């Protein structure tokens, strides 16, 4: 799964940037004192957008204890892998209208390299930039094509930082926005300023996203659909409907929206829990209709002798419904310290289909900027996430069933608990380096394996 560098995204109002760290919003009022965080600064008030990024991650794993391994296990031998993602962002405004602005978005991307154990064996996999299917190769592909339309509902305006998803620097304070085309849902849903960006923040799948949110996507993390959003001064509501993959975590999408679709809604309140400190809370809900299997049916067929092994794909039904919800919050505590958290739940009866194999997740973390040691664009952070699956899902894996990510051939169930920490160093303009350490207890929910340690080094360039 691949995500954009969300540190560059904008606010939905002047209450503070969404996708930009809360503690980083206290920028100097004099533009000449504002640090340059890209190789080639974008011209102000331009009707076009051209930028790019490159993200290279080296990961290595130490050997760990394991009583056995299966087809989809996280391997217990020492291993290292490298991944690289490069993206070219382009956009154009139809005119300079504030109240009725139109943006045309087109992005190209290239993803190369592989993940540890071919990105198998962990619900919270250690590198969000990895595409699970290595057979797709490193050929460039179209990542996004969108039409973004703004309809202002008032003449009162507010400023926003132009970026590759919204080019205007001024927008109506109350407005309706529409998007249609190819996109990835974490561009707009479940965004968290502290835990959403594998380019400058955390790397783990279930730290950067809500692991229980099985959002509509192909193997690379993209889908086709449309969304509508209402933005007011302190709150927003967004809703979208998108194409689901034809098979679990597959590259092909089912274009028959009448039988397969992912519907997502989110309410966002931009108000802190602490007086005079910025904060945001988001409530997410989703429902997926797709050709999905039922874990209990697969287990029952195996126990009855109908299937030689538990096989979820032998018990798929068109129109099957998988649903869930999530909560996401971030809060500034001081000028340098901010905290965040997530909770996610889904019904867990139907197979994990698009993102990862998590039925329930709880997460908390914090980041601290380096002003105290004269490194204002450096940051250190830590997060803890605990993932779980429901009883039917457990039984399926215990009896030897395979998901699209998990399958040790057996299962001594325990929650998959992960601690991740990183330090990001701003070297020069748009160049950043990071070191990252992850500790995974009960990888793949299996107490017979682990704990595992994974270390990473990352270089990121914005241009």
Describe the structure.
- With 463 residues, the protein is mainly β.
- The chain has one domain: Porin (Beta Barrel), CATH 2.40.160.
- It contains 3 helices and 18 strands.
- The strands form 2 sheets. A 16-stranded antiparallel beta barrel has the order 1-2-3-4-7-8-9-10-11-12-13-14-15-16-17-18. A two-stranded antiparallel sheet has the order 5-6.
- Helix 2 packs across helix 3 (391-398).
- The longest helix is centred in the middle third of the chain and has 9 residues, at 295-303.
- The chain is globular, with a radius of gyration of 22 Å.
- Residues 5-32 have low confidence and may be disordered.
What is the number of helical segments per DSSP (H or I, 4+ residues)? 3
Q: Summarize the biggest pleated sheet.
A: 16 strands, antiparallel, barrel
Helix and strand pattern: EEEEEEEHEEEEHEEEEHEEE
Q: Report mean pLDDT, rounded to a whole number.
A: 92
CATH class: Mainly Beta
The CATH architecture comes to: Beta Barrel
Distance between the termini: 22 Å
Global structural class: mainly beta
How many domains? The number is 1
**In what range is the share of β-strand residues?**
35-45%
Q: In angstroms, what is the radius of gyration? A: 22 Å
* Order of strands, widest sheet: 1-2-3-4-7-8-9-10-11-12-13-14-15-16-17-18
List keywords for this structure.
mainly beta, Porin, 16-stranded antiparallel beta barrel, 18 strands
Layout of secondary structure:
Elements: E1 48-61, E2 79-93, E3 102-113, E4 141-152, E5 157-159, E6 170-172, E7 175-183, H1 205-208, E8 223-231, E9 235-242, E10 261-269, E11 279-293, H2 295-303, E12 316-332, E13 337-346, E14 360-370, E15 375-388, H3 391-398, E16 416-428, E17 431-441, E18 452-462
Antiparallel strand pairs: 1-2, 1-18, 2-3, 3-4, 4-7, 5-6, 7-8, 8-9, 9-10, 10-11, 11-12, 12-13, 13-14, 14-15, 15-16, 16-17, 17-18
């Amino acid at each position: 799964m691949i995500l954009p560098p969300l540190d560059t995204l904008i606010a939905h109002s002047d209450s503070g940037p969404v996708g930009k760290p809360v503690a980083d919003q206290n920028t100097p009022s004099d533009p000449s004192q504002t640090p340059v965080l890209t190789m080639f600064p974008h011209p102000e008030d331009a009707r076009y957008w051209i930028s790019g990024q490159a993200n290279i991650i080296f990961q290595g794993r130490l050997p760990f204890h394991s009583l056995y391994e299966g087809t989809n296990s996280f391997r217990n031998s020492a291993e290292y892998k490298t991944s690289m993602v490069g993206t070219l962002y382009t956009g154009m405004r139809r005119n300079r209208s504030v109240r009725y602005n139109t943006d045309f978005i087109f992005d190209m991307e290239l993803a190369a390299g592989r993940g540890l154990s071919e990105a198998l064996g962990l619900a919270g996999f250690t590198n969000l930039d990895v595409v699970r299917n290595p057979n797709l190769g490193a050929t460039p592909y179209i990542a996004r094509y969108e039409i973004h339309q703004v309809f202002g509902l008032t003449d009162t305006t507010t400023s926003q930082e132009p970026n590759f998803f919204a080019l205007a620097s001024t927008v109506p304070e109350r407005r309706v926005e529409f998007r249609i085309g190819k996109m990835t849902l974490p561009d707009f849903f479940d965004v968290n300023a502290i835990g959403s960006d594998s380019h400058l923040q955390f790397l783990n799948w279930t730290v950067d996203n809500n692991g229980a949110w099985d959002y509509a996507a192909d193997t690379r993390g993209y889908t086709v659909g449309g969304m509508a959003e209402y933005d007011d001064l302190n709150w927003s509501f967004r809703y979208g409907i998108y194409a689901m993959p034809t098979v679990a975590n597959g590259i092909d999408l089912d274009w028959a929206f009448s039988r397969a679709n992912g519907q997502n809604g989110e309410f966002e309140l931009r108000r802190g829990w602490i007086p005079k400190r910025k904060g945001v809370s988001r409530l997410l809900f989703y429902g997926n209709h797709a050709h999905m299997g039922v874990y209990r049916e697969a287990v029952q067929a195996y126990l009855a002798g109908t299937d030689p092994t538990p096989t979820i794909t032998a018990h798929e039904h068109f129109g099957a419904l998988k649903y869930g919800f999530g909560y996401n919050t971030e809060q500034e505590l001081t000028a340098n310290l901010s905290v965040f958290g997530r909770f996610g739940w889904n019904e867990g009866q139907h197979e994990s289909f698009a993102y990862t194999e998590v039925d329930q997740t709880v997460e908390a973390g914090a980041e601290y900027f380096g002003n105290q040691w004269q490194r204002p664009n450096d940051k250190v952070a830590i997060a803890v996430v605990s993932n779980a699956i429901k009883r039917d899902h457990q039984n399926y894996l215990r009896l030897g069933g395979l998901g699209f990510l998990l399958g040790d051939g057996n299962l001594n169930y325990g929650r998959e608990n992960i601690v991740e920490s990183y330090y990001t160093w701003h070297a020069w303009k748009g160049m950043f380096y990071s070191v990252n350490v992850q500790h995974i207890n009960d990888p793949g929910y299996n107490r017979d394996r682990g704990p595992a340690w994974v270390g990473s080094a990352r270089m990121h360039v914005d241009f």
